[in-house]
Specification:
Layout lengths: L8 E3 L4 E7 L3 E6 L3 H12 L2 E2 L3 H4 L4 E10 L12 E4 L3 E16 L4 E8 L16 E5 L19 E5 L11 E3 L4 E4 L3 E8 L1 H17 L1
Parallel strand pairs: 9-10
Antiparallel strand pairs: 1-2, 2-3, 4-13, 5-7, 5-13, 6-7, 7-8, 8-11, 8-12, 9-11, 10-13
Length: 215
C-alpha cells in the first residue's frame, strides 16, 4: 500500500502541496510536504515536455497525457476542492491531467484532433447522461476488461493500447469517448502513454469516419 507521502501533489496556484484527507468527504488540504515528495513532483513535471518533432509524434493512434482545463459546470459539487480555479468575470474552470488519443493530425494548422479517455470516476458509461454508443473500452494488457451489465448499448469493439512502459497501464474502467473530439496544439506539454495497436488504429479510424459522416 502506498504511503501518505506519495499522495502529496503540488498546487501552483498557492505555491504549496496538498494531500487528500477524509473528513466526511475528500478534500484538498494544503500543508508542508516532505522533501522527498517535492523531488517526486519535480520528476513528474519533467515527464511533460513539448515534443521536438510534433509532426512525427502526433500521428493517428498516439496516446498521451496533458493538463486539460475546461469550464466547470454549475452543478459541480465543491469549487473549493483541488483542480478548480476562478478566472476572469468570476468564471470557474476545472483542471486535471487527462489522457487523449489522436484521431486526426492537422500538420498544416500545427494541431491535432483528439478524443478523451476517462473512467467517469470508476462508473464507466453508467454515469447519467453519457452516450454509450459513442464510447468503447480502451485497455492495456492481454485481457479485455468486461463491460458492466449496466453498460448495455456500448457495442463498439474495444481498443488496445501498447503502453510505453508498465507504469502506464490503463484502469480497467477506462472508456474512450469518440463523440467528443478536442483540438490539441502541438506546443502543449504532453507525456507519452503509448499507441494503439494496428488493428485498433484501423478500428478507431472507422469509428471516426462513421462519426464525421453522420454529422
Amino acid at each position: 500500500m502506498a504511503s501518505q507521502e506519495e499522495y502529496w501533489t503540488w498546487d501552483s496556484r498557492v505555491g504549496n502541496f496538498y494531500h487528500p484527507e477524509w473528513n466526511g468527504r475528500t478534500r484538498s488540504v494544503l500543508a508542508n510536504a516532505p522533501e522527498s515528495s517535492r523531488a517526486a513532483e519535480n520528476r513528474r513535471a519533467q515527464e511533460y515536455q513539448v515534443m521536438k518533432k510534433p509532426h512525427e509524434y502526433f500521428v493517428e493512434g498516439t496516446v498521451f497525457s496533458k493538463l486539460h482545463t475546461e469550464e466547470a459546470g454549475s452543478t459541480s459539487a465543491d469549487f473549493n476542492t483541488f483542480g478548480f480555479s476562478t478566472v476572469i468575470y468570476d468564471g470557474r474552470v476545472y483542471s486535471q491531467l487527462r489522457r487523449f488519443v489522436v484521431v486526426m493530425p492537422k500538420p498544416k494548422e500545427l494541431f491535432c484532433l483528439c478524443v478523451p479517455i476517462t473512467t467517469y470516476s470508476g462508473k464507466g458509461t453508467m454515469k447519467k447522461g453519457v452516450d454509450k454508443n459513442a464510447h468503447t473500452i480502451i485497455y492495456t494488457g492481454n485481457q479485455v476488461p468486461r463491460r458492466l451489465p449496466e453498460e448495455k448499448g456500448m457495442n463498439k469493439a474495444p481498443l488496445k493500447v501498447i503502453p510505453v512502459g508498465p507504469e502506464e497501464m490503463l484502469d480497467p474502467m477506462s472508456r474512450i469517448n469518440i463523440g467528443k473530439p478536442y483540438p490539441v496544439d502541438w506546443n502543449n506539454k504532453v507525456k507519452p502513454i503509448g499507441h494503439l495497436d494496428h488493428s485498433s488504429r484501423l478500428q478507431l479510424r472507422a469509428y471516426w469516419k462513421e462519426l464525421v459522416n453522420a454529422s
